[in-house]
Amino acid sequence: MNTKLRKSSTDKSIAGVCGGIAEYFGISSFAVRLLFIFLPANIIIYLILVNTMSDSPPSL
Predict the structure, then answer these.
(1) Read out DSSP for 7-35?
(2) What one-character DSSP code corresponds to residue 56?
(3) Which secondary structure element, helix H or strand E, spans residue 6, and what is its range?
(4) Is residue 42 part of a domain?
(5) SS3 state of residue 50
(6) Is residue 45 domain-resident?
(7) pLDDT of amino acid 22
(8) pTM: predicted TM-score of the whole model, two decimal places
(9) Cα 45 to chain centroid, rounded
(10) Residue 23 sits in which domain range?
(11) Distance of alpha carbon 12 from its chain centroid, rounded?
(12) What percentage of residues in the chain have a pLDDT greater than 70?
């Protein structure tokens, strides 16, 4: 498996972090978003991921 964890360019609500995580693990982005809602430090983790995850390459 030679995939990188990147922000999603197609499945994004705010910045594409949850969509990118869902694409990487092959699960529903809705499940990842629910996970972020119930995590205690969700805002801090999300801000760190927004700033550290690279953008996905543009698709045609």
Answers:
(1) E-SSS-SSSSHHHHHHHHHTS-HHHHHHH
(2) P
(3) strand 6-7
(4) yes
(5) helix
(6) yes
(7) 93
(8) 0.84
(9) 11
(10) 7-53
(11) 8
(12) 93
Report if residue 34 sits inside a domain: yes
Q: Which amino acid is at 20?
A: G
Longest distance between any two alpha carbons in the chain, whole Å: 38
**How far does Cα 10 stand from its chain's mean position?**
11
Spacing of C-alpha 7 from chain mean position: 5
Q: Which of 29-34's residues contact partners 24+ apart within 8 Å by CB, and which partners?
A: none
Inform me whether the pLDDT recorded for 9 exceeds 90: no
pLDDT (0 to 100) of residue 56: 82
Domain count for the chain: 1
Find out whether 46 and 39 touch, Cβ atoms under 8 Å. no
| CB of 30 closer than 8 Å to CB of 37 | no
12 assigned to some structural domain: yes
